[in-house]
Design goal:
The complex is a heterodimer of chains A (255) and B (267). By secondary structure, chain A is α/β, with parallel strands linked by helices. Chain A contains 8 helices and 10 strands. In chain A, α4 crosses α5 (156-168). In chain B, α1 runs antiparallel to α11, α2 (38-56) runs parallel beside α4 and α6 (128-147) runs antiparallel to α9. Chain B: It is found in: Cell membrane; Membrane.
């Protein structure tokens, strides 16, 4: 495994390993949820994770972002073992829709800004450049007009855009979406998925998305899963057919 | 009216103003994390400590504070053992606190009057030492909240997202719990153990109805608490009432007014 690490760091830029699962097992009490599973997500992959409830999707996702520790095996983020990983601002995270309290008195702006509050931002003030990043993320997601509304007053689709804006504010290299479209009407779901697909095609970003929606996943990622872990299927599509030398969030999302 | 200029009343007012800052400051985080009941629990445990302090002749608030901190650690531990049943750990520790308190009460029959003032609060009991303790706790709480305000916001809004941002979630959780213990153990001498959690939760309950942002809701809850403390203490002084009662009843009155006002506006 070490030799592979060494080779990827000098190899093609588009093919760095973003997430590596190395013989990972997890058990909850006596029940084995994941057994000896290995999987690699490379830069600019779009990985769709499909599985029925109880298949261990959530467990797997939680392990990949360090919320749970595997019983056996190792997980590496950007080549770094997860317990030593520090560059959390490289990861954007869009949670399940119902993971927050809808009565929470936060404004859209406050929520989007909170995407910047990483381990490296502790003891640092939110400055003008941070506000600019926030304005940009709001604009890109077309939610500038609702920036001062309370998050609980918004529709499901709007809330989803807010959380996507929060995840994008750091211009992350890896975007993790945990069932982002649950409880949202079909049209909004389709719009949201279009947006994500567009970002994948035109931006230097890696995607990991857990979903129930097998049609959407298969429509974009093909009908053949690349890998399986118990009842969880992994669909993968790689993309790097676009010149991404121009920096900035705007270029990547607007055509 | 001359009571308002008396030394003991001035001390109570100063202490009350300080607690009027710290209690809602912590309370808003507790309410938003659905831990409103933790205040009650820690208050009951603190009373057990206070009773033990009287029994052993040690400064009661100090013993109460140690009890509250230990209990807050125990709640965190139990919270993990019964994941998803946060209120269970709170109920267990509350029962333990009440049991210990009543045990210590029956062991030391002679000074129950002093203990009573800790149950319902009193404007007569605050001495200079207490004032220094309250002052120190206020300084600590204000500094910690200011330093970690944005991190605590994210932690409260969405604990998983805070983790994925690499924030020291365990440490922040512990900070909130320990600060809660500090605030409660110092507040009970004025408001009383039975009513202290109202000072943590009702200002937050009011401000949640009217605030347009998180920052606003923090500011509003402090303002609401201060109004209730000042008017409540004066009323208690003038008419010789228990300050815990006057403060809490004022808070509830303000909550009802807010509810009516909000309905009036939205209608």
């Amino acid at each position: 495994m070490n030799s592979e690490n060494a080779s990827t760091s000098t190899g093609a830029y588009c093919h760095d390993n973003i997430i590596e699962l190395d013989h990972v097992s997890f058990s909850y009490k006596d029940q084995k949820v994941i057994t000896d599973f290995s999987f690699v997500i490379k830069e600019r992959d779009f990985v769709g994770v499909i599985g029925s409830n109880g298949a261990g999707k959530t467990t797997l996702m939680k392990m990949m972002v360090g919320l749970l520790q595997p019983v056996q095996g190792e997980i590496r983020l950007f080549g770094e073992p997860i317990r030593r990983f520090q560059d959390w601002e490289r990861i954007g995270y869009v949670p399940q829709k119902n993971s927050f309290n809808p009565l929470f008195p936060a404004t859209v702006r406050e929520v989007v800004l909170s995407g910047l509050y990483s381990n490296k931002k502790i003891f640092k003030r939110v400055g003008r450049s941070d506000q600019q990043k926030c304005d940009e993320a709001l604009e890109v997601m077309r939610i500038t007009n609702i920036a001062d509304k309370r998050i609980g007053q918004l529709s499901g689709g709007q809330q989803q855009r807010v959380f996507l804006a929060r995840a994008l504010i750091n211009q992350p290299d890896l975007l993790i979406l945990d069932e982002p479209t649950v409880g949202i009407d079909a049209q909004t779901q389709a719009d949201f998925f279009e947006l994500i697909k567009h970002m994948h095609a035109h931006h230097h970003m890696t995607f990991l998305m857990v979903s129930h929606d097998i049609e959407m996943i298969e429509g974009y990622l093909g009908t053949e899963p690349r890998d399986q872990c118990g009842a969880i299927n992994f669909y993968v599509r790689h993309s790097h057919d676009q010149d991404c030398s121009k920096p900035g969030l705007q270029h990547s999302i607007k055509k | 009216m001359e009571i308002l200029t008396a030394d003991f009343f001035q001390r109570a007012l100063t202490g009350g103003l300080l607690i009027g800052i710290t209690a809602p400051l912590i309370g808003i985080f507790l309410v938003l994390r659905r831990l409103s009941m933790i205040g009650d629990t820690l208050a009951h445990v603190t009373i057990a400590g206070v009773a033990l302090g009287f029994l052993t002749g040690i400064y009661p608030i100090a013993v109460g504070l140690v009890f509250a901190v230990v209990a807050s650690f125990a709640i965190e531990k139990l919270r993990k053992a019964y994941k998803g049943y946060a209120e269970l750990s709170i109920a267990i520790i509350m029962a333990g606190g009440v049991a210990l308190a009543s045990l210590f009460f029956t062991l030391g029959m002679g000074y129950n009057n002093d203990v009573m003032s800790y149950l319902f609060g009193s404007i007569y009991t605050l001495d200079t030492t207490d004032l220094y303790v309250v002052g120190a706790v206020t300084v600590v709480v204000v500094i910690v909240i200011t330093l970690f305000f944005k991190e605590m916001f994210l932690l409260t809004f969405e604990e998983d997202a805070a983790s994925v941002s690499g924030l020291p979630v365990k440490m922040l959780n512990l900070l909130i719990t320990v600060m809660t213990a500090l605030v409660i153990s110092t507040a009970i001498k004025i408001v009383g153990a039975l009513l202290v959690s109202a000072l943590l939760t009702i200002p937050a309950a009011c401000s949640l109805l009217i605030a347009r942002s998180f920052k606003q809701s923090v500011v509003f809850s402090v303002i609401i608490a201060e109004i209730a403390v000042v008017i409540g203490l004066m009323a208690a002084g003038i008419w010789n009432l228990a300050p815990g009662a006057t403060i809490v009843l004022l808070l509830i009155a303000m909550l009802i007014l807010t509810l009516i006002g909000k309905k009036g506006f939205s209608a």
